[in-house]
Specification:
The complex is a heterodimer of chains A (271) and B (245). Chain A has 271 residues and is an alpha/beta fold. Chain A contains 14 helices and eight strands. Chain A starts with a strand and ends in a 5-residue tail after the last helix. The radius of gyration of chain B is 25 Å and the shape is elongated. The chains are: A alpha/beta (271), B alpha/beta (245). Chain A: This is Septum site-determining protein MinD.
Chain lengths: 271, 245
């Protein structure tokens, strides 16, 4: 049975798209068939992060409105066969999404993939609403700072009231993905600690992604970080998170960069 | 208005120097101001509709309160006399009608003639009437999950929350509020005018505390109480907060 997962946050710039790409690729790396869907109509980014921007012909809106079928719009990743992208339209806006259209597209995707990962736009409006609407579980991407935490709390409230699952009276599973975390800065009190965030949001933890220049480097290369550099600290954190999504029990750690002699010499060159 | 009414008449004991200057006319100033009026649209049979209105008022005392109400009689085909009777019925219920629309203005006679509404106005969406499911008045509501940012819990009676109230969330109760978790949002107790209502929480970090309209923000709060189990009550006209231990 396919799982529909929404990656959401309320606040912008916390790492939803990066996390969608990284988790999608990480799940695909474990052999699952995965489709990542960009719901940020008008401000699409997932295609860039996935390195597929030159291959977009049809998009989500074309499929929602019945102008193209899924086969025409889906873009299969060149690095991993089991990973596909359904891009958003850049020229339209969120009003082009319709309830029936989105429901039909998600229904069709569920017949083809093990995982459908919906990359939600920031905000709590139409795009975010449709991205979460049909989800079975939600990954809440949060930075360890107060505004991100409060926005995440707001989104959790909406997940518990506006989704199909909530309307059926079921409980939506919500998992926290804490991104851009720096243990040193949290220890100094410059940043909220993991426990603080968990205490405020009271949901379970999917993973802690350490702050790392590798993430930006991978985005600019057009590759999910788990593919660009699988042994980097953020990649290992994402790969662990993906294993937890599959039901494995993986001890919760904050991976750090393994720097040898050469790492020290060249470590600063990137970024 | 006659110009004389607008003239400034210097008082006899005013500064003589000022009095000698020709009195300047003060310009008449106009200001725009918009109010949200509740539009009531009665349906046939009117008696059943009035009964439903009574039930709503019983569920939520003070729902009409001082709200301005516009009566839209377009769904009814009433004679001038029936309109007058309906206005009387509503007046008895304490509903303040500021205007009537949906009928020929000539139908409004006598003292009701001034109620004819000018055409216009802009629809402002549904105003949700309190649901019957909020339980009996003066009862108790128990919430077994955190109140999230942006959510608002409103209840006639006491509210108990087994969880936290997030920053940006609000709990409004006509009775007392109990929070078995951190109170980071707003807690408004005694909202319908109960001076004895209190607020209790396991961890005080509230954005705003209010009892019977007397409020306090975190800024006014004694820092030593932050993060502590605490209670708030009304002492005369002052809101008091003390640690609970």
């Amino acid at each position: 049975m396919a799982e529909v997962l929404v990656v959401t946050s309320g606040k912008g710039g916390v790492g939803k798209t990066t996390s969608t790409a990284a988790l999608g690729a990480a799940l695909a790396q474990t052999g699952q068939s995965v489709c990542v869907v960009d719901f940020d109509v008008g401000l699409r980014n997932l295609d860039l992060v996935m390195g597929a921007e030159r291959r977009v012909v049809y998009d989500l809106i074309n499929v929602v409105q019945g102008d193209a079928n899924l086969n025409q719009a889906l873009i299969r990743d060149k690095r991993i066969d089991s990973l596909s992208l359904l891009p958003a339209s850049q020229t339209r806006d969120k009003d082009a999404l319709t309830a029936e259209g989105v429901e039909r597209v998600i229904g069709e995707l569920k017949n083809r993939f093990d995982w459908i990962i919906c990359d939600s736009p920031a905000g709590i409006e139409r795009g975010a609403y449709f991205a979460m609407r049909h989800a079975d579980l939600a990954v809440i991407v949060t930075n360890p700072e107060v505004s991100s935490v409060r926005d995440s709390d707001r989104i959790i409230g909406l997940l518990d009231s506006k989704t199909e699952k909530a309307e059926r009276g079921e409980v939506m599973e919500k998992l926290l993905l804490l991104t851009r975390y720096s243990p040193e800065r949290a220890e100094r009190g410059d940043m909220l600690k993991v426990e603080d965030v968990l205490e405020i949001l009271s949901i379970s933890l999917l993973g802690i992604i350490p702050e790392s220049p590798e993430v930006l480097k991978a985005s600019n290369l057009g590759s999910p970080v788990t593919l660009a550099n699988p042994i980097s600290a953020p990649s290992r954190a994402y790969l662990d998170a993906a294993r937890r999504l599959r039901g494995e029990t993986v001890p919760m750690t904050v991976p750090t960069e393994r720097k040898g002699f050469l790492g020290n010499l060249f470590g600063r060159r990137a970024a | 208005m006659s110009p004389a009414a607008l003239q400034i008449v210097p008082k006899s004991d005013a500064d003589p120097a000022a009095a000698q200057e020709p009195a300047k006319r003060k310009p008449v100033r106009f200001k725009g101001r918009s109010f949200m009026a509740l539009v009531l649209t009665p349906e046939q049979p009117v008696n059943d509709w009035l009964a439903e209105l009574d039930a709503l008022a019983a569920r939520s005392p003070g729902f009409f309160g001082d709200r301005p109400v516009v009566l839209d009689v377009s769904l009814l085909r009433l004679s001038p006399r029936m309109i007058a009777a309906l206005l009387g019925d509503l007046d008895q219920r304490g509903v303040r009608i500021i205007g009537v629309e949906g009928c020929d203005p000539k139908f409004l006679d006598g003292p009701n003639a001034r109620l004819a509404m000018p055409v216009g106005g802009r629809a402002a969406g549904e105003i949700s009437a309190p649901e019957a499911s909020t339980g009996k008045v003066g009862g108790s509501l128990i919430i077994n999950q955190p109140v999230r940012s942006g959510q608002s819990v409103s209840f006639q009676g006491d509210v108990t929350i087994c969880g936290s109230v997030a920053s940006g969330a609000e709990v409004i109760a006509s009775g007392s509020i109990h929070v078995y978790g951190a109170l980071r949002g707003r807690a408004i107790a005694g909202s319908a005018g109960d001076r004895k209502a209190r607020i209790f929480c396991r961890r005080l970090d509230a954005e705003l505390l209010a009892i019977d309209g007397v409020y306090m923000t975190t800024e006014d709060l004694n820092r030593a109480l932050r993060g502590k189990p605490a209670t708030a009550w009304l002492d005369g006209e002052a809101l008091r907060v003390a640690a609970l231990d």
